[in-house]
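Memo to structure team: turn this sequence into structure tokens by end of day. - J.P.
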Amino acid sequence: MGSFSIWHWLIVLLIVVMVFGTKKLKNLGSDLGGAVKGFKDGMKDGAAPEQPATSTAGQVTQQVTSEQTTIDVQAKQKG
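Reply from structure team:
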């Protein structure tokens, strides 16, 4: 009594197709497949060891702090 037979599932499938149509179900399937693929790619990238990133911003920051450069900024107020 707790499980459904194949006939129950076929009737449910027929009702879903009648309500949503085959075009929406096809789009839903492709969107779901793309989401699963993106999730798998994200998990694969997260499992890879991180490589140290060399960025020019980090080098510029190190240059500025090593030279002790000071920038004076004058604030103007709206009046």
